[in-house]
Amino acid sequence: MSDSNAKRLERYKRLIEISRDLASTLDLDLLLNRILVAARDIAEAGAASILLYDSAARQLYFQAATNMDPMMRGLVVPMDSIAGWIVTNRQPLRIDDVHKDTRYFKNVAKTVSLDTKNIIGVPLITKDKVIGVMEVLNKEQGEFNEIDEDLLSVLGAQAAIAIENTRLFQQSDLIAEFVHELRTPLASLSTATYLLLRPEISREQSDQIIANIHSETLRLSALASSFLDLARLESGRVHFQKSSFPVLPLLEECKTVMQPKADETRVAIELVVPSDLPSVEGDRDKLKQVVLNLISNAIKYNRPDGKVTVSAARDEKAWQVSVADTGHGIPEEAINNLFQKFYRVKGMETKVAGTGLGLSICKQIIVGHGGRIEVKSKLGEGTAFTFFIPSQ
Ligand SMILES: Nc1ncnc2c1ncn2[C@@H]1O[C@H](COP(=O)(O)OP(=O)(O)OP(=O)(O)O)[C@@H](O)[C@H]1O
Ligand SMILES: [Mg+2]
């Protein structure tokens, strides 16, 4: 592969990465920062900035920049500036020498203390509404070109959705949260298909993009079934089918299901069940789902060659199942959030696929049985989840 081709692939990859990344934050400042860094890198520019448009007040103002000066935030930019033109015309704009352009807004230049030479601005449009403008300034070498403009337009479309999303989330309910989660894989898919349609894409590049599409569709389908499970559980429409059953066969079935996944990272699954353990009561299928979820986590968040120990016990008051792993552990400040819908511990979420719904579903099922679920974790050593179901 030629140098420039390799470089271009790098930029496409970054675009896919970022579009997947964007919808994963609900903190507007954090989100804008990610967008800016991505825009700057993708366009190989010196700086990037985002202006937001308040359609009620018909005002355009500075919101964030890679080289943000605190003075800049909230600075109103006139509508006859470059950014104003983009909002009004809903079109990208590329200018090779801003000093020759009457729309250049010098007030910004002064505040930013950056000598602007060339610029690309793209509108941020969602649902037919312009919500702002994203600009990149000063190409590192030479001038901005059509590919830069193209890539930025795609990023701008994703960014607009993500920005709108974080706003939407503020008045969230389960549906809004779900829609938000849905948009993550959808954004990746739309970027991927866009890239596939580009004529200069090589076989190698398209294979990679197709692999990406495949994993994102898997994620979408997992998300849909988890969401349905959770929505049903939350609405109280689920009736538990209680029966009395022995624990060991249930755990053995779970082990069999999870073994292939465990083998991938050479994680061993061990069952520790006393041979004289009396039968227990509950909805066998639903409780199996809980155990599967816990074992799935114990494998996913384990280290290679790690171990998962599944144990069961019972006394007069309750019976319990515990799933312990030898993984990274969970930071203390995250423990309280684990059972929240869509919550995923920071840092891991990009490395391991998941929806953040598994534990919420577990909790609903356990609480529906009148029981409780506990977690104990030590960083660097591992985590143990234990659920207790009252004996009848
Ligand atoms: N055994 C574990 N060790 C370390 N972290 C864990 C463990 N179990 C869960 N977590 C953390 O808690 C988060 C929430 O777990 P949960 O099972 O709800 O969602 P998920 O595993 O991300 O997605 P899903 O279960 O839907 O595939 C995980 O993303 C992970 O960060
Ligand atoms: Mg899980």
SSE series: HHEEEHEHEEHHHEHEEHEEHHEE
CATH architecture of the largest domain, by name, is 2-Layer Sandwich
| Structural class by helix and strand composition | alpha+beta
What is the CATH superfamily label of the largest domain?
A: GAF domain
Instruction: Give the DSSP E fraction (strand runs of 2 or more residues).
Output: 15-25%
The level of helicity is 40-55%
The oligomeric state of the chains shown is single chain
Radius of gyration: 26 Å
General shape: elongated
How many helices? The count is 11
Spatial order of the strands forming the largest sheet: 3-2-1-6-5-4
Compact description:
The chain has 392 residues and is of the alpha+beta class. The chain has eleven helices and 13 strands.
List the helices and strands and how they pair.
Blueprint: H1 3-22, H2 28-42, E1 45-54, E2 59-65, E3 76-77, H3 82-89, E4 93-95, H4 106-112, E5 119-126, E6 129-139, H5 146-169, H6 174-196, H7 203-235, E7 242-245, H8 247-264, E8 268-272, E9 280-283, H9 284-300, E10 307-314, E11 318-325, H10 332-335, H11 358-368, E12 372-378, E13 382-390
Bound molecules: adenosine-5'-triphosphate and magnesium ion (MG).
